[in-house]
Known about the structure:
The protein has 155 residues and is of the alpha+beta class. Helices cover 35% and strands 26% of the residues.
Amino acid sequence: MDDEERLKIKIAELRSQPSLEETERLLNDTVGQITDAATGIVGTLRWEQVQVRNQGLCGHDYRDTGGLDVFLPHIRADRPVPEENWSQVLEAAREIARQAGITEMQIFSDVPGNREVRMYGENGNAITIGYRGATVISGRTGCRLPAADLAQPPS
């Protein structure tokens, strides 16, 4: 299979996915539900946005497809999740993420005072939650085509 055929296959894959805007909305809603759940478990958490949204061209297999991915703003609480509540917060986050097709989990750090877990799905979407001094939740969409591109007939 040559590069042109591979590119056509990748574009067809992207055309079968929800739009970038729809995916970003879903991920934003999911992160919001996770922060709400965490606050329900640890009532002292107060959240703020600490980074801006970032959008860029997809790389690797999706280079040259016109696909984009979005890094959501990081949401930070002013304090860490207490150790005695971490497993509850993580389980709530996993359950909420599962509803958005984010079903897998990768643990980067799992020691008291330094937790970091990435949840991801076959849909390419990912959410990271963790703490080391403060609690941070971030998200990234999988590679998607904007709605305007999806509205155009395939070339």
